[in-house]
């Protein structure tokens, strides 16, 4: 049985996300995707942005499916996906870090912050300096609250569903995430409205 997984949401949101990435990743060369999931975004964005090397990563359990999808696509700019995730020990950060150059000038993550616990969100941002170049761009897609308020009834219902499944998960406040970003030297460049009450928030390091 194929290990390739499918997400309808990835198919729906990929074109609006790409429109933003085409602007912010135009002068980038190496992208680290954190939480590649099904690998659909990696396949689509790497195909649409052939000047980029798109490094997929995720929990080890998801890597066979991602690797199978990328191998079937036959793209020259998608190296073997890495096992990488937010970890709390021995110190909060990203791990395990491979023994290769890690100065990525772009990092992308979609639909991850609301799935993990807040402690793991903090660990993800704490780990970014270890993988980012000095002028790196970070783009994060997903739902966000503002000052504790939901942006729509559908997001309120989604948050309740998330918490019923895992009380540690939930839609994050944009201001709290911005504070984590600022703590590692990232400045917000753009906050773009996306379909289905999502946002694509873009930061840059060193500005």
Detailed description of the structure:
With 207 residues, this protein is an alpha/beta fold. Helix content is 34%, strand content 28%. The strands form three sheets. It has a seven-stranded mixed beta sheet, sandwiched between helices. A two-stranded antiparallel ribbon has the order 4-5. It has a two-stranded parallel ribbon with strand order 8-9. Helix 2 links the parallel strand 1 and strand 2 (53-58). Helix 1 (8-24) runs parallel beside helix 2 (40-48) and helix 4 runs parallel beside helix 6. The termini are far apart.
Summarize the structure.
It is built from six helices and eleven strands. It has 207 residues and is of the alpha/beta class.
Describe how the helices and strands are arranged.
Blueprint: H1 8-24, E1 30-34, H2 40-48, E2 53-58, H3 63-73, E3 82-83, E4 85-87, E5 93-95, E6 104-110, H4 118-127, E7 132-142, E8 144-145, H5 153-165, E9 172-173, H6 174-183, E10 186-194, E11 198-205
Parallel strand pairs: 1-2, 1-6, 2-3, 6-7, 8-9
Antiparallel strand pairs: 4-5, 7-11, 10-11
